[in-house]
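User: My collaborator sent over this chain with a note saying "see what the structure looks like." That's all I know about it. Can you take a look?
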Amino acid sequence: MHRTGAVGEDFAAAYLQRKHCRIEARNYHSRYGEIDVIASNEIHLIFLEVKTRSANAMVSPLAAVTPQKQRRIFKTAQTYLMHFPTQLQPRFDVMGITVGKDGLTVLQYQYLKNAFTADGIS
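Assistant: Without extra context I'll predict from the sequence alone. Here is the result:
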C-alpha cells in the first residue's frame, strides 16, 4: 500500500472509532478484492472503502469508487459474512480523503453512509 493510502485508512479507522464503532478488520482480502475497513456499531456491520488522493489529483476520491469496484466490495463482503456470520445489518460506506503535498496531512474528507446498496449492484 502506498503511504498516502495508509494515511487515509488510518484516518478513516480513527474517525469510525470516534463515532463509537469497533474496528473488526482492516485490509480484509478475498479472491474478489479487498475491503479497507470493516467496523461495527450496535446496528450495522460497516464495509468501508477509503479513497485517498492528493489535492492536485485529477479525479476526486469518491469518483474512484466505480460500479465495478462496488461489485468487488460487495462480493468480498459476502465472503466475510460467510466466515464471520452476524445479526448486524450490512452497510456500505465510502470515505473520500484529500491530503496535502506531504501526503500526510488530511486537508478534507467526505463520508458517505450507505454510499451504495446491494440492490444497486448489477
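A starting point for your reply to your collaborator: The chain has one domain: 3-117.
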